Amino acid sequence: MEHFYQLGWTLDPIGGSSSDAYKAEINGDKFFLKRNTSPFITMLSVEGIVPKLVWTKRIETGEVVTAQHWKNGRCLTDEEMNSDRVASLMRKIHSSDKLLNTLERLGMQPMLPELLLNRIESSLSPKINAHKTVRKAIKYLNNKIPHIDSEFCRVCHGDVNNQNWLLSDEDELFLVDWEGAMIADPAIDIGMILYTYVDFKDWKNWLSKYGKSLDHDFRQRMKWYTLIQCLTMIQWYEDRKRYKEMNHWIIFLNDILEKDMMV
């Protein structure tokens, strides 16, 4: 990013040590700069799902840098995830033909359940794979693979935790960090929101705002995908030796398996 320093920009790296994202300022204007962002960001900006894209530039290193308006704000609280606004924005994302067509033009193929299961099984370390709760989850996943038509798949975010929801000081709601975007069953997003943030007694009401009924098939699919994502997070934290967080996800995994026996 030396190019921007030379032009008088002030850059503050954010989002960890990768130095891919920056809070940037020049002449009193503030931006969010990111390197090598997917062209998908353009359509997300047009749809108002992320802060407005200002420009895209290729710098001398060959990397592509995007600039979005910097938005002061905060992440949503756990309680705010059980809100009409979150349900409405998820509905907008999952129902958008423009978003779907954009990812299809970029060459993305549907992420069907069998592929997700194969990917997670091949990624687990021997230690994680041997854990009794993980083995129980793997057995369940193999026995309950959802059968869905690829035509049913829509654009999904893939990591809808509350830290990726930005509520601006102007009361605008955005869903950011789309690096894991996929074409998949919308239950992969909805399951993580409901299991993580919403009391079961409120599921029907939340889903009514989203535009979906809580039938047995949808609930079973939500559980299946949530277990997949739990395993993904367990391995992610083990890889980084963050064992406290890893154990949290193992407990969550076990809770879903033990307490949600009817599906």
UniProtKB/TrEMBL annotation:
Chain ranges of the Aminoglycoside phosphotransferase domain: 16-217
Residues passing through the membrane, by range:
none
Q: Name one Pfam family in it.
A: APH
Superkingdom assignment: Bacteria
What InterPro entries does the record point to? Aminoglycoside_PTrfase, CcrZ_PhaseVar_Mediator, Kinase-like_dom_sf
Q: Which PANTHER family did the record assign? A: CELL CYCLE REGULATOR CCRZ, PHOSPHOTRANSFERASE YTMP-RELATED
- Can you name this protein? Phosphotransferase family protein
